[in-house]
Amino acid sequence: MESKSAKGWLYLLPAILFLGAFLVYPLIDVFVYSFEEGYNSASQTFFGTGLYNYSYILHDPYFLQAVRNTFILVIVTVPLSTLIALGISYGLSSIKALRELYQTVFFLPYVTNTLAVGLVFMILFQKTAYTDGLVNLVLGLFGITPVDFITGPYWAKMFVLCFYTVWVVLPFKILILTSALASVSEDYYNAARIDGTRPFRIFRKITLPMISPMLFYLIITGFIGAFKAYSDVVALFGTNLNAAEMNTIVGYVYDMLYGDSGGYPSYASAAAIVLFAIVLTITCINLLISKKHVYYGR
Amino acid sequence: MNRDIIRSERAAKTKKTVRSTLTYIILTFWVIIVLFPFYWMVLTSVKSYASYNSEHIPKFFTLSPTLENYSSAFTAVPLGRYFINTVIFTVLTTALMLIVTVPAAFAFSRLRFKGRDAVFTLFLSLMMIPYELVVITNYTTITNLDLRNTFTGLILPSVTSVFYIYLLKENFSQIPDELYYAAKVDGTRDLKYLFKVMIPICRPTIITITILKVIECWNSYVWPRLVTDDPNYYLVSNGIQEIRENGFGRENIPAMMAAVVVISAPLIVLFLVFRRKIMEGVARGGTKG
User: Fold this and answer.
1) Domains of chain A: which residue ranges?
2) Does domain A61-293 have CATH number 1.10.3720.10?
3) Per-residue buried b or exposed e for B266-277, using 16+ beta carbons within 10 Å of the residue's own CB
4) Which residue among A116, B46, B133, B161 is buried most deeply as judged by most CB within 10 Å?
5) How many CB atoms sit inside 10 A of residue A260's CB?
6) For the segment A177-220, what is each residue's pLDDT rounded down to a tens digit?
């Protein structure tokens, strides 16, 4: 028994070492950092403990801007992407021909490099001295004056960001919802059809309740993912997000850690913990709501 | 009476046709939105610098495609270096991930020892730790160990994913116990059993987690950006960002797009080859890295 036990631990050892060094220890350490005031990464000294770091970031206009941007992004893209994904998956499940082809194409953005494709979106939306850009030309057909979506007004930048975010997150949602829709038993539909139920009513009374657990899973992971937005934003607006007024909370954390404005792991830790608290709260609220509205079967 | 039925049937049929046509139109519309950026990036990458900048209204096709942008993507900026770095990083990280994941999954699914279930529960709870919380200390650790701008510093914190251990453990557990005991009676050692029986049986899952890890590595941006500031160690993601900010000069969009095509192509090919495996693996619980 003794040697068997040792063997078990031996197999686990690499995993434990890696997780301990790069997951568990950092998790504890980040809380320590966030309470150390005036931490200096060069000399590794600090001169006090307390809540100063939190108070600093909560009064930092850049942080408040980042929080505002993140919330706008979350509130716009989570419902929008979930609804579009629901519509597309429903459409996919009702067709037969070309279905596989459509599914493959819809999933394509998932495997692409966010930074690289973000550049394509940038040139599509950008207005430069040479050209108004393709999107502006299309908008021009409807009589809309060209706007620079990349370095122009705030709402225009936010629009591109939301658009790109939806483009990036849809593949995952479509995939999950398509398989959820496929798993609803035909019997329910056949029964409803015999009763002459209208399609919309079938959708609302049968399909939606049956896929509600997956839908809810998507909403929760969608919220978590959107709150952590960062690389999509960098892809569109470059690394100096504060100057572009487009920073997100995660972007603020990294800016505090590294780069021209970096070197403040304590502020970064405090910001990361604030983000974590927000995400945790939202997730708990989501779970409470889901208890009421989600059908988990028997 | 009979005619009424026929008429209502015909009406129902028309309605159905209209609905399915509408469905196809909407789906095709979204196909265009998804594919258009890819088309545009390939198209722009084969336009010459002069012709791109002379098009005040961008053209949807080009009659004189050129590959000069691709050659300047590899000569004017060190795209080749970024590419090789990413391949090294991806291969080593994925290999290490397998070396760590397979034995751990084996221990959790097949070996019996004290504290196993407690540790497994602990592992599962680790899945909930957000990356943003731990990256700060990891950054400090790697900096203090003087591992910035090294492959070691890039790779080590990127190796483990609890989710893959969990996925593989679930798969290992499905192999009937009888097989294990039979092998034990024959005097097969655990390690041999793992390699001769379990790994071959669970090969589909192992391939799936390998592909998912490769995608994750190829697209990783945050960690490489934090620990590398020497372009010799840039991966493609921060390489492309560097190209955008200091590369060809901001106006040379066609060359930039050529770099984007080069970076995106490997994963798209991988996806088209392993389409089913990837979609199945992601559906089983992957989220975007």
Assistant:
1) 1-50, 61-293
2) yes
3) bbeebbeebbeb
4) A116
5) 9
6) 998 998 888 888 888 888 888 888 888 888 888 898 889 889 98
Angle at A241 between CA A235 and CA A243, to 5 degrees: 135
Q: Which residue in the block uniquely carries the two structure tokens 């409807």?
A: A142
Q: Among residues 247-286 of chain B, which lie with CB inside 8 Å of chain A? A: 251, 253, 256-257, 259-260, 263-264, 267-268, 270-272, 275, 278-279, 282-283
pLDDT score of B176: 87
Take residue A169 and report the two structure tokens written for it: 């997150």
Structure-token pair, residue A34: 């966030």
Which residues, in sequence order, are CB contacts of B95 under 8 Å at separation 6+? none
Contact A255, A247 (CB under 8 A): yes
Helix/strand/coil (H/E/C) assignment for every residue in A221-264: HHHHHHHCCCHHHHHHHCCCCCCCCCCCHHHHHHHHHCCCCCCC
- Give this complex's ipTM: 0.89
Domain ranges (residues) in chain B: 2-68, 76-283
- Disruptive mutation site among A10, A16, A18, A166 for chain B (greatest number of B CBs within 10 Å): A18
Residue with tokens 């034990």: B184
Compute the radius of gyration of chain B from its Cα atoms: 26
Tokens linked to B39: 């088309």
Are the CB atoms for A283 and A74 separated by under 8 Å? no
Q: Which residue of chain A comes nearest to B222, CA vs CA? A: A231
- Looking at the DSSP bridge assignments, the partners of residue A48 are A37
| pLDDT lower than 70: segments of chain A | 1-3, 40-44, 297-298
CA B21 to chain centre: 34
pLDDT in tens, B123-132: 988 888 888 8
A151 conformational bin, left if phi > 0, alpha if psi -120 to 50, beta if neither: alpha
Contacts of A250 in chain B (CB under 8 A): 132
The secondary structure of residue B288, as a DSSP letter, is -
**Coil, strand or helix at A22:** helix
Top CATH class of B76-283 equals mainly alpha
DSSP structure class, residue A59: T
Residue A143 has what DSSP assignment? T
Neighbours of A33 (CB within 10 A): 24
Q: Say if strands A36-37 and A48-49 run parallel, antiparallel, or are unpaired.
A: antiparallel
CB atoms within 10 A of CB B230: 9
